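Notes to self after the call with IL:
- keep both proteins in one doc
- input above output, always
- annotate only the second one for now

Protein 1:
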Amino acid sequence: PRFVATDFLQFDAKQQEYDGIIFCSSLHDLPEMKFSLEKASMLLRENGKIVIVHAQGGMHVLGQHKANPVLVQRGLPSEDELTEWAGEMSLILDFFETKSEENYLAVLQKSSDN
């Protein structure tokens, strides 16, 4: 097993595939969320998972966006957005949950049809 903690935008996987990629309170800080998820999907092996989690939730991220839209360009993706993006990336939205906007958890899985 291998665990890599790195600057995702600078990361060069060198043809390696991963079982899972976790964005923990970080996806909203990346300049292009959809591009970052596309990159992550290319790094996954078949049935691999992308986990997007934010303990403070979507409302917190929207507050950050309102306070500093240059740094936080948008809120976290909605369930509908993730479903649409997943279809474009050969992923499926396996799980999505937000409770009282105090947390955010989404799991995307790479389709075995690739």
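Protein 2 (the one to annotate):
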Amino acid sequence: LRLHLSSNSATGYKGVSKERGVYGSRFRAKHNVDGRQVCYGYFGTAVEAAVAYARAVGEAPGQAEVAAAAAARAAEAQAVEAAKAVRVEQRRRAAIEDQRRLFEEVETHAHAHAHTHTHTHAHTHTR
């Protein structure tokens, strides 16, 4: 059984707190479920309370499972970033293509306008 260790807890275990009562110091195992606190009991040692907590909420993941989950999250984040980069590149290429088309339209329009103007101008001289 893997216990849930915690550097944030004074006892060193997640879900375990030290309680002082009429019977002296005891260790309480508790867990929040849907915003409600569930108490699994009071124990003579922090380890006993940690065992009760682990049995109630499930064994703590081992280092291999923690590392695998972290690697999966990192791979997913990397895939998301790669997809963003592809979309940025697609938008960049589309913008370049739009600029090229616009330039061609302007060039075509300017060429046609210049040709019409020269032709009209040539007509005025012959009259």
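Annotation: Helices lie at 46-57, 63-126. The longest helix spans residues 63-126.
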